[in-house]
TrEMBL record:
Entry-linked InterPro entries: DNA_methylase_N4/N6 (IPR002941), MeTrfase_CN4_CS (IPR017985), RM_Methyltransferase (IPR001091), SAM-dependent_MTases_sf (IPR029063)
EC number in record: 2.1.1.-
Family: Belongs to the N(4)/N(6)-methyltransferase family. N(4) subfamily.
Designated name of the protein: Methyltransferase
GO molecular function: DNA binding; N-methyltransferase activity; site-specific DNA-methyltransferase (cytosine-N4-specific) activity
Keywords: DNA-binding, Methyltransferase, Restriction system, S-adenosyl-L-methionine, Transferase
Highest taxon, organism lineage: Bacteria
Pfam family, one: N6_N4_Mtase
Biological source species: Candidatus Collierbacteria bacterium GW2011_GWB2_44_22
Top EC class for this record: transferase
Catalysed reactions, as listed in the record: a 2'-deoxycytidine in DNA + S-adenosyl-L-methionine = an N(4)-methyl-2'-deoxycytidine in DNA + S-adenosyl-L-homocysteine + H(+)
Length: 289
């Protein structure tokens, strides 16, 4: 039986002061986990360890966690394992099928732990319809990684060219691919249209989130050297888009992935570019008033 006067019971996420402090670094170089079987068909999943950490930080057991771009289901599987409810939305039928299978497998393994207290569902739909599935003020945490506009399509082409000339071979040659041909797919939008559409999603996301709840987005910055744009500050654009939609820009975490990637020789010998080997975790909070 938990002690209602304990510090853990009083904290909004159920963490002790020591756990809280240990999770409060703003640069993470210790988050990776082998991709699980259900991850293999998707070119851009995050590791379950990342979802586990974010869910621990920003929610407690019994809360509702949402992922509007759920892919093969990483966020909802992590929510399940941590006794949170979970709702995911995914446009691509194949990824939806994989996510649903992964979730059913979890339910078969762990059902007794969470029976009756929480619910989990992955919808195959356009996340523009997210309010169909969620009541206003019901979600404690959204954790997601959207497509990066149509950068993936560009980067597939760029990587092919880089591989031809690079002295250092890219380790992951390349599992990145376009998610679908659908017009609703955020991965098929030009950047400026993409940001406008993301603002609408963030506005709906705000409505369904509880006051004081969080929305956490994992993104990378980009280059479009072909069009002479050396740096696209996607995480800042996303942060500003979130603020425009009514969110507080609460925090920024750098997820250092240098140990997971090999270096590519870029721009040599004329222009120096760094490798984009980190992701940014943009944290929004819904105002209390
Ligand atoms: C970066 S991936 C997310 C991967 C996920 N974090 C995981 O670990 O599996 C982005 C996903 O968004 C999906 N997507 C694109 N447009 C969408 C839309 N309009 N509604 C819902 N999902 C969409 C893509 O099919 C893709 O699976």
């Amino acid at each position: 039986m938990n002690n209602p006067d304990s510090k853990e019971e009083k904290s909004f996420n159920g963490l002790s002061p020591k756990e809280w402090a240990l999770l409060s670094k703003n640069v993470w170089n210790d988050v990776s986990s082998p991709r699980e079987a259900f991850h293999l068909e998707h070119g851009a999943t995050y590791p379950i360890a990342l979802a586990d950490r974010i869910i621990k930080m920003y929610s407690k057991a019994g809360d509702l966690v949402l992922d509007p771009f759920v892919g093969v289901g990483t966020t909802v599987v992590s929510a399940y394992r941590q006794k949170r409810s979970g709702i995911g939305i995914e446009l691509n039928e194949r990824f939806h099928e994989i996510a649903s299978e992964a979730l059913n497998k979890e339910k078969a393994n762990l059902f007794e732990n969470v029976k009756g207290k929480v619910f989990h569902k992955i919808h195959c739909d356009d996340c523009r319809n997210l309010r169909k599935y969620l009541k206003d003020n019901s979600v404690q945490l959204t954790f997601t990684s959207p497509p990066y506009a149509n950068f993936i399509q560009k980067s597939v082409k760029d990587r092919k060219n880089t591989h031809k000339t690079s002295l250092i071979k890219y380790s992951n040659n390349s599992t990145v691919k376009q998610y679908s041909e659908k017009v609703e797919d955020f991965g098929n939008l030009d950047y400026h249209v993409f940001l406008k559409e993301i603002k609408l999603i963030l506005a709906d996301n705000l409505r369904v989130t509880k006051k004081g709840g969080y929305s956490v987005w994992v993104v990378k910055d980009y280059r479009d050297t072909k069009n002479k744009i050396p740096y696209i500050d996607f995480h800042s654009d996303l942060a500003n888009t979130g603020k425009d939609a009514g969110w507080l820009y609460q925090d920024l975490i750098v997820w250092d992935q240098n140990s997971q990637r090999r270096l590519v020789l870029l721009g040599y010998p004329s222009v120096f570019y760094t490798n984009q080997n980190c992701s940014f975790i943009v944290v929004f909070r819904k105002p209390l008033l």
